[in-house]
Prior knowledge:
Domain Ketoreductase: 10-190
CATH architecture: 3-Layer(aba) Sandwich
CATH class: Alpha Beta
Number of domains: 1
Strand order of the largest sheet: 3-2-1-4-5-6-7
Distance between the termini: 26 Å
Keywords: NAD, Oxidoreductase
Low-confidence stretches: none
Family: Belongs to the short-chain dehydrogenases/reductases (SDR) family.
Pfam families: adh_short_C2 (PF13561)
Shape: globular
Protein name: L-iditol 2-dehydrogenase
Amino acid sequence: MDTTGRLAGKHVLLTGAAGGIGLAVAQACLAEAARCTIADIGSAASAGVQALQAAHPETLRYQQADVAQAASIAALVEAASAGFGAIDVLFNNAAVFDMAPVLEADEASYQRLFDINVKGMFFTMQAVLRQMVAHGVRGSVINMSSQAGRRGEALVAHYCATKAAVISYTQSAALAMAPHGIRVNGIAPGVIDTPMWQHVDAQFAKYEGLALGEKKIAVGKAVPLGRMGTPQDIAGAAVFLASDEARYITAQTLNVDGGNWMS
């Protein structure tokens, strides 16, 4: 990806960013001259974050946070602001995945998915938006949805519902924040080749009677562009939405899925 300093002077807060898509987006933002606060649930930075910190010691900080807890969100925003000043961009990425047939899906899975994917997403966004308004920051929020939020799936009811909620909250927040000059958009990835797919593939193998790895191969072949996406494919879209190049774009959820969903 070409780098041109598009995010120079901006402070980007990224949740769920210890690896996969979040870490790739952080790397792309740093390459565009941003200062980044990476947040994840681990008490210590992952190896990937540590390597990135070694390359960007002055512009990258790690903060432990559990977005399912209101106090943790408040502490995260406070610590991020103390480190690099007011937040200009939120990459709202923390999420978990689970699946089960509708007749077997249980309350514990429902609660965990909605606590993190919906409640955590909304209240992290709210905390950052409050700060942006208080400081007069004409910022950008990017909420991570999924192609699963565009349609139901028989084995993935809870997860699909959480990601549909992300799209809806993105639209509502964008309308509420437009008078403040704050843009709120989403990204709906398709099938992205991250470590999480090992877990996803194993669950499909269990419920669909497949061999391990079979589902992953099949979904990649089914993409119109012929492959699964990479975290870097999402990073390009995220940098664009964070930058002034997207200054007239708000209330949208951008499909980055190789053509899986057409809208």
